[in-house]
Amino acid sequence: ISSAVAFDILPLKLHPFSQSTPTGLDCVGWKRRISSPVITDGALDKTALTDDVGSEEDLYEDFRSSNHRYGHPGGGGEQLAINELISDGSVVYAEALWDHVTMDDQELGFKAGDVIEVMDATNKEWWWGRILDSEGWFPASFVRLRVNQDEPMEDYPLKVEGGKEDDSSSGTRRFGMGQTTKDQMRTNVINEIISTERDYIKHLKDICEGYIKQCRKRADMFTEEQLKTIFGNIEDIYRCQKKFVKALEKKFNKDHPHLSEVGSCFLEYQTEFQIYSEYCNNHPNACMELSRLTKVNKYVYFFEACRLLQKMIDISLDGFLLTPVQKICKYPLQLAELLKYTNPQHRDFKDVEAALNAMKNVARLINERKRRLENIDKIAQWQSSIEDWEGEDVLVRSSELIYSGELTKISHPQAKSQQRMFFLFDHQLVCCKKDLLRRDILYYKSRINMDDMEILDVEDGKDKDFNISVKNAFKLHCRDSEEVHLFCTKKPEQKQRWLKAFENERRQVQLDQETGFSITEVQKKQAMLNASKQHHSGKPKAVTRPYYDFLMRQKHPTLPTTLPQQQVFMLAEPKRKPSNFWQNISRLTPFRK
After folding, report:
1. What confidence score (pLDDT) does residue 102 get?
2. Which domain range does residue 477 map to?
3. Are residues 233 and 194 in the same domain?
C-alpha cells in the first residue's frame, strides 16, 4: 500500500514540522470530526453567539453549508521537504522537547534535550530515528527540528590542497554578504525566536478574545469557576508575553540579526515566567472539564463557532490550551542553540549563558510544583486511612511529606514514654499510634505546629527538664510558651536524619513563601473528595481517570504496534523516576511542538 494511500486510511493528526513555530499551530491540518468553513469579514456578527442556547448549532450549520474551509496555508509542504532532504542523503536533526520513556524495543527512548537523527518522516505521527547505536520509532510531536541542520564549518578544521588542515581559515569562512557561517547560524536562531514569539502572541490573543470573551457572554453556559478551570491564568500569561515580545523587538537588529542582544530580555522576565507553573499544574483539570462539557453537543457547537468567528486555524480548543505548556519547554532548547552559535566575544554571550540557566531553573521550578500537586492526592489518601482523625485536614496547611518514622515520645509530668509514628509535613508534625494487633492500622493522636517550634539537640545523659537519662534525643521547644516535647530514636543515625528533616521542613516553608507556592481551595477539596470515595469503596481509584479518558479518545496511528509509555510533561529537568500516573496518561497525549 502506498504511503499516500496509507495516510488517507490512518486516523492521523497532521503535526507541525516547521521550526519557525513554537507550537506548530500555523501548519496543522488536524483531521476533525466536523468541518470548518471560511468566514469572510462581515459575514456574521459576533453577537450571534449571545443568542439562545440552541443558536450555536444553527450557526454552525450555516458555516457548514459553505463550500469553503478556513485553514492555514502550508500543512504538508514542509513534511515533504523533510523527506526529500532525507532521500537526498542529507542528515536531519531534531531535539527532544520531553522525555520519551518506553518499554517497547521498537521505540526510541530519549531524554529532553537529546539530539535525534531523523531517518524516516514518512509517517506524520511517528518518525524513525537514531541516537548513537539505537534506532526506533518516536512521537514526532515530542521533538523540535533544529533551526540549523548543518554544523558551522568553523567547528571543523578546513582541508587545503595537499591534505593538510588549515586552522587559520576556519574562523574566517564567510557566508553571503560578509557574514561568517556561525553568524548566519545565529541569525537563523534569532529569527526563529522572534517569529515564534509573534506567532505565540497571536495564539494567546485568539484564545483570550476568541474563546474567553465569548464564554463570558454566556453566563447560562459557563460559571466563572468553570472558566477559571478551563483557561487557568492564560490571560496573565498573555499580558506577560506581550511585554516580553516588546522587549525582544527592541533588542532585535533587523539589518543584522546576528548582532541582536536578546539574552537580557529572558533574564528580565525570568521571574514573570514562573506564572507558567500555575497554568501547567492546572492543565489536566482543564482537559477534564473540557472532556465533560464536550459530551454535550451545544458546547461542541459553541466552541467551534468561537474558533470560526475568530478565524483561528483548524485545531480544537484543547490543542490551543496546550501551547503555553509547550512554550515553556521550548525556551531552554532555543537558548541552548543560540548559545552554541554565539561567540564568547559577542556582547550577548554572557547574558545568553545566564538566560539559559535561568530558563532551566524556571522549568525545574515548574516541575517541582507539578510534583507537589501530584502529592496532594497521596496526602489526602493517607489521611483518609487514619482512624479517629480529629481537627482540620492536613492539606489545610501542608502539601509535602518531608519525613516519617517511629520515635519514642516522652511527656510531662511523669516522664511517661510512648512509641508513636510521626509524620513530618511542612508546617506540622502529626502523631499516630499503631494498632496493637494490626500494625498497618494507625490512629490519630495529636499534632504539633512546627511554625512555633525550635529544634534542640540533646546530648546523651541526664536531661534536666525531664529528670531522666536519655540517648539519641532531641527536643521541640515552643517559642511562645513553656511547651517542650522530648523525643528519642533507637540509633544515632536515625536522630541525625530527623534533625536534617526538620531543617528541610523549615527550608521548604521558606522556599514556598519566596516562590508563592500554594494550593487552591478547589484542589484541596477535590483531593479530599477523591480520597473519601476511594476509602469508602475500598478499591484503588484512578483520580485522574477523566483526563485519561479524554486522551484515550484522541486519534492515533497504527504504528508502532504497541503504544508507548512516555513521560511528556517533564520540562527538561530535573531527571527523576516518572510516576505511574504520567506514564499512563502520556501514552496518548496529543502534544504538539
Report:
1. 63
2. 400-516
3. yes
Residues whose CB falls within 8 Å of the CB of residue 325, separated by 6 or more in sequence, listed in order = 276, 279, 280, 283, 569, 591
Q: What is the CATH number of the domain that holds 134?
A: 2.30.30.40
User: Stretch 415-429: mean pLDDT, rounded?
Assistant: 91
CA 533 to chain centre: 28
Residue 245: Cβ within 10 Å count: 17
Q: Assess whether pLDDT exceeds 70 at residue 373.
A: yes
Cell of 314: 483548524
Grid coordinates representing 567? 513521560
Residues with Cβ < 8 Å from 275, sequence gap 6 or more? 233, 236, 237, 240
Query: Residue 262 falls within a domain, yes or no?
Result: yes
d(CA 318, CA 299): 13
**Taking the model in full, what pTM does it have?**
0.52
In sequence order, the β-bridge partners of residue 174 are: 180
Q: Has residue 296 been placed in a domain? A: yes
CATH number at residue 274: 1.20.900.10
Q: Contact, 362 vs 274, CB < 8 A?
A: yes
Closest to 269 in 3D by CA, of 205, 320, 339, 197: 197
Question: Distance from CA of residue 198 to its chain's centroid?
Answer: 21
Considering the domain architecture, whether residues 197 and 334 belong to the same structural domain is answered as yes
Give the residue carrying C-alpha cell 459576533.
46
Distance CA 436, CA 387 (A): 14
Chain-centroid distance of CA 511 in Å reads 20
Q: Which residue from 35, 31, 196, 22 is spatially nearest to 125, judged by alpha carbons?
A: 31
Whether the bond into 157 is cis, omega within 30 of 0: no
End-to-end Cα distance, the chain: 29
Residue 79: the pLDDT is: 60
Q: For the chain, what percentages of helix, strand and coil (3-state, to nearest 5) are there? A: 45, 15, 35
277 and 348 co-located in one domain: yes
Q: Are 196 and 234 found together in one domain?
A: yes
How confident is the model over 188-216, as a mean pLDDT?
93
Same domain (yes/no): 191, 307: yes
pLDDT in tens, 522-558: 778 888 888 887 665 544 433 344 443 443 343 333 3
Q: Which helix (H) or strand (E) holds 409?
A: strand 401-411
In contact, 166 and 157? CB cutoff 8 Å: yes
What confidence tier does 151 reach under pLDDT thresholds 50, 70, 90? low
Q: Which of 321, 343, 402, 386 is nearest to 154 (CA)?
A: 343
Taking only the tens place, the pLDDT of each residue in 268-279 is: 998 899 889 888
Which grid cell is 139?
Answer: 512521537
Neighbours of 354 (CB within 10 A): 16
Closest CA to 57 of 315, 304, 317, 309: 304
